[in-house]
Amino acid sequence: MNKNKKTTELHPLEYYLELQYPITLYKDSEGGYVAEIKDLPGCMTQAETLDEVMTNIEDARRLWIETAHQYGDNIPIPANDDQYSGRVLLRMPRSLHRKLAEGSKQEGVSLNQFFVFLLSEAITQYRIKK
């Protein structure tokens, strides 16, 4: 089990049905859309239009929670930014460290700011490709 995921003692069903879970949408390569609630493992659906996929994911969320509750399974609480400190320890080759330090100096920003800039650009490109 992922230690970063928060789980709760079993509350009334209505409590869980009121929770707002982040939804991740993907464009399907064969057309249409896929929606997933990553906090609820396996809770996903697909449809041809955005309206349909949003209706379907709401139904899937409700059924996932109702089923887990019926069987007494732990139901994860929606993820939030409180779980992330913003701090990461990163080891790299000295040659890469040098190149990054030179890049940050050339841009006139701290090495930390340069990392954030590069990572932001990279994650944007990654999401565009997906």
UniProtKB/TrEMBL annotation:
Keywords: Plasmid. Residues 21-83 form the HicB-like antitoxin of toxin-antitoxin system domain. It comes from the Bacteria. Transmembrane segments: none annotated. It holds the Pfam family HicB_lk_antitox. One of its GO terms (biological process) is regulation of DNA-templated transcription. The keyword Heme does not apply. InterPro entries: Arc_rbn_hlx_hlx, HicB-like, Ribbon_hlx_hlx, TA_system_antitoxin, TTHA1013/TTHA0281-like. PANTHER family: ANTITOXIN HICB (PTHR34504), UPF0150 PROTEIN SSL0259 (PTHR34504:SF2). This is HicB-like antitoxin of toxin-antitoxin system domain-containing protein. It comes from Gloeothece citriformis (strain PCC 7424) (Cyanothece sp. (strain PCC 7424)).
